[in-house]
Amino acid sequence: MADAPALTELLKDAPTNWGRWGPDDELGSLNYLTKDEVLRGVRSVRQGEVFTLQRLIGDPKGDPVWPGRTPAVRTMLLDESTWDKPDAPSFPGGLHYADDKIEAFLQGSTQYDALGHVWYDGKIWNGYDARTTVGGMKKASVEPIAERGVVGRGVLLDMARFRGKENLDKGETFTHEDLLACAEHQGVRIERHDILVIRTNFLRLFFEQGPAFYEGFCEPGLVYSPELVRWFQEMEIPNLVTDTIANEVTTDPSNGVALVLHNALMRNLGVAFTEICDLEKLAASCAADRQYDFLYVAAPLKVHEATGAPVNPVAIK
Ligand code: UVW
């Protein structure tokens, strides 16, 4: 949209948590997840059921990725055919082994974003200069999140089931009030410091549409309003987890601005973003037994100065 307002203008009165945890902070709202919050999460384990939330890296179906990114490629480097070749290395005792590698966008699979991954006005999380991203994230990279790990009470908000749909549609939006209505419908309460896990069944939409998904690319998701940002701030939400690429409607339909919530929540409030999760098994279980809260445990890979890193989050009910 040619006359979309600048984020600087749109978010000029928006709250920030810059400085709240000191001038050197790189964890943002994950600071809310104290030892007491870990124990509160543990108290929501009632059945001993475990769900992993990562999509398969190298899935033959491909990966849903932001335009310009490409799916991960895994290449076999050594296998049994290697060892028949005349120039094959040899090891004492006749050892053979297999080796492979992956080439993948760190933002291209189930992943944690670094808090400094997006910005406007030349400043990333906590007010660090955006020049600190040049050549590698010297500030607010994914490393501090990976080093710390993320543990707390998670709550699944199944927006697709709540709206009586297989999946939300391209560009379909919802607000924090919809999340509250969904929670009420599910019989669960969203509490302060909860990790919000939102299901839209985006993967179904993506694979059903195929390449056509990228024509007028717009994911379903949360949509910006000052009230929504204030609600996240009052509820002190540490982490937003979804099954979409961007965790929010990609382009705000009311003003044409891209990724407003990445900026209002991640850059300004320090909310951690976990994207492209596979929530299907967890959601089916929650719908069956009506337990929508669980212990959420995740630690992205430790990748030096990275903008994000793959993760396999675990929900334990
Ligand atoms: C961008 O911010 C561009 O992508 P993602 O949704 O992966 O964070």
TrEMBL record:
<dbReference type="GO" id="GO:0016787">
    <property type="term" value="F:hydrolase activity"/>
</dbReference>
<dbReference type="Pfam" id="PF04199">
    <property type="entry name" value="Cyclase"/>
</dbReference>
<protein>
    <submittedName>
        <fullName>Cyclase family protein</fullName>
        <ecNumber>3.5.-.-</ecNumber>
    </submittedName>
</protein>
<keyword id="KW-0378">Hydrolase</keyword>
<dbReference type="InterPro" id="IPR037175">
    <property type="entry name" value="KFase_sf"/>
</dbReference>
<dbReference type="InterPro" id="IPR007325">
    <property type="entry name" value="KFase/CYL"/>
</dbReference>
